[in-house]
Design brief:
Length: 416
């Protein structure tokens, strides 16, 4: 429970810092270079301060997947072993090689947290540049302050998760698309697919639809991916290991988790049923977006890009049976940009505060109160106050996702 309290305090404190920053006129009046320094300080000072306090002074260990997967995967490569062939891997083929490079600099789990903090700062700069190129300066600065003061993004960085890696790659691809560099944008996504995990494919349809030159974007994305995955396949690697390892996993914080307990006779088939529904929803969204954006000029599609990224990320969080709140870091900036565009200051801050608290605390509540159990099992074994309180937390989180999805659709319709 101490971890839950810590995450809530971090989320509240950083949100209050962001709220104070937005109330000062200097945010809008500073020259661009000075603003970037200020917003980076808003993000990095708390992050590096907590890193030193927790991991250097406090000698705490990095948790989440880092000690269980990242560290042994990186050390396996340093020992000369090949991913998929010599050891199982849930991530992309080059992921353990990146981990090995980091461990060669600092042989500790803490290096992943430090790397995530620094990469998150890079993501902030890239997202801000993309927002400035596509929207007015005030909207871009509000979005950047909110992102910099997101307690949820900070917690993900402190945990050293690779969610920030995908966010940085998505930010780079977005900026390159806005600047008309389709091949480079696609290549960055290929890097993400080869160095992080298959989940980076989630945003490929949006990037392809919005690309000024779709063929070039696809070529940039596919060529490097084919070379890397082809090389591992030729070496005897089983590239389907990640899909087999992940296909039956679940998380809380999504509609399948809440609805599975009501599936009754379909209980044994519900995972595949929910997978099919998720594919239909996301496929339908791709078709809807293509029909609305295909005929528009590149300049109009550029303004639709970030709201579309937010929409796809939010739909995934709603309908995927495995959608840990950490995945929201992928598209947090686009979602906050939509919030800045579509709400007034008071509503924006209130929602931002609640949303970040829910994102930061929900997974820990599930593991600590529910032991990572399916909701149906949890309800059969215990129907206490804690169980129903957690259901209310999940419903509140789902409502936040749905609200932001509605705002994203509204913004997309206005752009067309």
């Amino acid at each position: 429970m101490i971890a839950i309290a810590f995450k809530v305090v971090v989320a509240v404190a950083t949100a209050l810092l962001g709220g104070c920053a937005l109330r000062t006129r200097a945010v809008q009046n500073l020259p661009e270079g000075h603003f970037l320094c200020a917003v980076l300080a808003l993000q990095l000072v708390p992050a590096l301060g907590l890193f030193v306090a927790l991991y250097v002074v406090g000698h705490q260990d990095v948790t989440s997947d880092v000690p269980t997967f990242y560290l042994p995967n990186g050390r396996a490569v340093l020992a000369g072993r090949v991913p998929y062939r010599d050891f199982p891997l849930s991530y992309a083929p080059l992921f353990p090689y990146v981990g090995a490079a980091l461990l060669s600099l600092w042989n500790s789990t803490k290096v992943f947290a430090l790397f995530a903090i620094l990469l998150n700062a890079v993501a902030l700069v890239l997202w801000h540049a993309a927002a400035v190129a596509s929207f007015d300066r005030q909207t871009a600065r509000i979005s950047s302050v909110l992102y910099a003061s997101s307690g949820h993004v900070l917690v993900q960085a402190l945990l050293g998760t690779n969610q920030v890696w995908i966010a940085a790659a998505l930010a780079a691809s977005t900026l390159l698309l806005v600047r008309g560099r389709s091949i480079a944008s696609g290549f960055v996504q290929a890097l993400a697919l080869c160095t992080v995990k298959v989940l980076s494919l989630l945003f490929w349809p949006v990037l392809w639809i919005m690309a000024p030159h779709r063929g070039r974007w696809l070529g940039g994305a596919l060529l490097f991916s084919a070379i890397v995955y082809g090389a591992f396949a030729a070496g005897g690697a089983d590239l389907l290991i990640p899909l087999r390892r992940e296909s039956n996993l679940i998380s809380s914080g999504n509609l399948p988790y809440v609805l599975e307990s009501l599936s009754g006779p379909l209980g044994s088939f519900s995972p595949r049923v929910f997978d099919s529904i998720a594919l239909l929803v996301l496929g339908g969204a791709v078709l809807w977006l293509y029909l609305h954006a295909a005929h528009l000029p590149a300049s109009s599609r550029a303004q639709m890009l970030m709201p579309a990224l937010a929409l796809f990320g939010l739909l995934f969080m709603l309908v995927s049976k495995k959608s840990f709140t950490g995945y929201a870091a992928f598209f947090m900036y686009p979602a906050l940009l939509v919030l800045a565009l579509e709400t007034n200051a008071r509503r924006r801050f209130g929602f931002f505060l609640v949303f970040n608290v829910l994102l930061a605390a929900e997974p820990s509540l599930w593991f600590n109160l529910g032991d990572g159990r399916r909701l149906g099992v949890w309800l059969r074994e215990s129907r206490g106050t804690m169980t129903y309180s957690f259901v209310l937390v999940d419903l509140a989180l789902l409502s936040c996702y749905a609200y932001l999805a509605v705002l994203s659709v509204r913004r997309l319709l206005r752009a067309t």
